[in-house]
UniProtKB/TrEMBL annotation:
Its EC number is 2.1.1.72. InterPro entries: DNA_Adenine_Mtase, DNA_methylase_A-5, DNA_methylase_N6_adenine_CS, SAM-dependent_MTases_sf. The keyword Protease does not apply. GO terms for biological process: DNA restriction-modification system; methylation. This is site-specific DNA-methyltransferase (adenine-specific).
Amino acid sequence: MSLNENAYEKYQHKTFYGMELVPDTRRLAMMNLMLHDLAVDDDNAGILFGDTLSNEGKVLPPASLILANPPFGAYSGDCDHPFRFNPIT
């Protein structure tokens, strides 16, 4: 099965996109897209650098499916959060 030109353009530039805050993780995600022959070089495709929970995340197009995983590391310079051991009840 082959895609027509319009379907291929949509697959390349408007299907897979995201945002990542950690530079090394962003590079890995972009390499994965490249290995699967997907565009990573414009504002509507690839993985942008930023924080999706801030205003930066508002630049992403609407999503019909979101894949995510919890953060496994800590930010450099991370310190204990004041509510970590005394949660608000």
